[in-house]
From TrEMBL:
Source organism phylogeny: Eukaryota, Viridiplantae, Streptophyta, Embryophyta, Tracheophyta
UniProt-listed Enzyme Commission number(s): 2.7.11.1
Name of this protein: Non-specific serine/threonine protein kinase protein
Keywords attached to this entry: Kinase, Serine/threonine-protein kinase, Transferase
Broad enzyme group: transferase
Length: 426
């Protein structure tokens, strides 16, 4: 009750000072706050564990709605309830590390997450907690994690590590004993292994291994992941051809392979990925011509093929390109568009084709290769072309002006000479 009295006083002052204005009155403390003084229903051991983890326990962690931004949730067992989930975020700096003894009493947790809790991490979680977890997430927290730490979480369905360096042997070690995994995110983790060749294929539907230093090829065994909906391998050091077997992943909706060193053509077999929504192959060394089958993909919204080595005439019409939210093909110097089918107002960032299907001129500046995602009326391109025209007519006007001035000068000299001669004769 103590901290409430000065607060109330302040509120009163505020109300008094703002009576002339029409602001709505600030909410007054509601009478519902009284139940908080009732004893917590949480297992006392877990209550003190929360305390040791720096979580204030003045409000019952099992109350509904949960205090501290949903930091906790509990089961409904009696006489004491137990914690099911714990989300530690924005940890106070008073907490110097994660007390292992506290973690040991939390083995009823199925979900544990850290965000912005830069603490030293324990080498391993207590094994009972390791096995009870179905969901583990760690974002910009715990100075670093080891592959071993993660690999012991055998019962996970959901694993997400974001912005935390992971040391040790790599992705395969981490996931090989997680048969229930549904969603795997290891992003910005400094992992430098190859991609696993063996997966537990049944449930995995989301893989995000973006922004690491992963090496090697996409293994064809990836095609066994029949539930896979999204695959993000952006910003790694992967290379090689796309395996034809990628086409077996018929549930795939999102593929991001940008910023790697993949090469070769887009395989024709990809045409069977009819659910595709998002395809990003940008900033690789893909080559060959663009396949026509993309225009038959009804759900496609995002197609980014920029900064590759594609060549030839773009085989898409304006209605397809306008249907997409994003369509990017810039940065492919041998790619061009058919002027009689596509308007320059689409600003595709590539040159127009000559009649042999080759680019007529060097493509416009990189700065103009944004496309598709702006529903602009193309005014800017009109302006650009106008300014180009102006630039073109500039020198010719100058030449004309100089010519007129010169001829005037010559004419007047001749006139004066003639005049003086006529005068001299007389
Ligand atoms: C708190 O968690 C519940 C159930 O998990 C969820 O429905 C609710 O939206 C969450 N509230 C906030 C503010 O995150
Ligand atoms: C943690 O801090 C961030 C930024 O200060 C804030 O946006 C977020 O809501 C905080 N989270 C919680 C659970 O308090
Ligand atoms: C692992 O999870 C399953 C359900 O997904 C559960 O039945 C099993 O008891 C869990 N194992 C452990 C050791 O908690
Ligand atoms: C990232 O990995 C490299 C070796 O692959 C290592 O030298 C470096 O210290 C790691 N960085 C961090 C932040 O752990
Ligand atoms: C893939 O990962 C990158 C980097 O983390 C991110 O910017 C991008 O949005 C992701 N792509 C998809 C489709 O989620
Ligand atoms: C898939 O791509 C869509 C469209 O670009 C995006 O809105 C969505 O967040 C992506 N989903 C996943 C799981 O990456
Ligand atoms: C594509 O690049 C590969 C080398 O990465 C080369 O062998 C092949 O001939 C190229 N294909 C075309 C059509 O340029
Ligand atoms: C554009 O291409 C699609 C697919 O090739 C086709 O179904 C559609 O009729 C074409 N639209 C126009 C206006 O030519
Ligand atoms: C451009 O399209 C027109 C009309 O469909 C066609 O006659 C012409 O051959 C095409 N040009 C190229 C280079 O494909």
């Amino acid at each position: 009750m103590k901290p409430k009295t000065p607060l109330l006083f302040l509120l009163l002052l505020l109300l008094l000072s703002t009576t002339t204005t029409t602001t709505t009155p600030p909410p007054t403390p509601s009478p519902i706050s009284s139940p908080t003084s009732s004893p917590s229903t949480l297992d006392p051991k877990q209550l003190s564990a929360l305390h040791a983890l720096g979580l204030s326990t003045t409000l019952d962690p099992c109350s509904n709605p949960s205090p501290h931004n949903n930091a906790t949730s509990c089961d409904s067992s009696r006489p004491f309830r137990h914690l099911l989930s714990l989300h530690l975020s924005n940890c106070s700096s008073d907490l110097s590390d994660l007390p292992i003894s506290a973690l040991r009493s939390l083995s009823t947790l199925t979900s544990l997450s850290f965000s912005n809790c830069p603490l030293p991490s324990p080498r391993l979680l207590p094994s009972s907690l390791s096995l009870s977890l179905h969901s583990f997430s760690c974002s910009s927290s715990l100075h670093h994690l080891s592959s071993l730490f993660l690999s012991r979480l055998h019962n996970l369905s959901y694993l997400s590590v974001l912005n935390v360096p992971i040391s040790g042997s790599g992705v395969a070690i981490i996931t090989s004993h997680m048969p229930h995994l549904i969603s795997l995110t290891l992003s910005h983790t400094n992992l430098s292994s190859i991609l696993p060749h063996h997966w537990h294929p049944l449930h995995l539907s989301h893989i995000d291994l973006s922004s690491n230093q992963l090496k090697g090829h996409i293994p064809s065994s990836l095609s066994l992941l029949s539930s896979l909906k999204s695959l993000n391998l952006t910003s790694n050091s992967l290379h090689g051809l796309l395996p034809d077997s990628l086409a077996d992943l018929i549930s795939l909706r999102n593929i991001s392979l940008s910023h790697n060193s993949f090469s070769g053509p887009i395989p024709d077999s990809l045409s069977s990925l009819s659910s595709l929504v998002h395809l990003d192959l940008s900033s690789n060394q893909f080559n060959g011509t663009l396949p026509t089958f993309f225009s038959a993909m009804k759900n496609l919204k995002y197609l980014n093929l920029e900064n590759n080595n594609f060549h030839g005439v773009i085989p898409y019409n304006a209605s397809f390109i306008k249907r997409l939210q994003v369509f990017k093909v810039g940065g492919n110097s041998n790619l061009c568009y058919n002027h009689s089918l596509l308007s320059s107002k689409l600003e595709l960032g590539i040159a127009r084709c000559d009649r042999y299907g080759l680019p007529v001129s060097p493509p416009p500046d990189k700065s103009s290769d944004y496309s598709g995602d702006d529903e602009d009326d193309g005014g800017s391109s009109e302006d650009r072309r106008k300014s180009h025209g102006g630039h073109h007519s500039g020198p010719s006007k100058l030449v004309l002006g100089v010519a007129i001035a010169l001829s005037c000068l010559v004419f007047s000299v001749v006139f004066i000479v003639c005049l003086s001669k006529v005068c001299g004769c007389r």
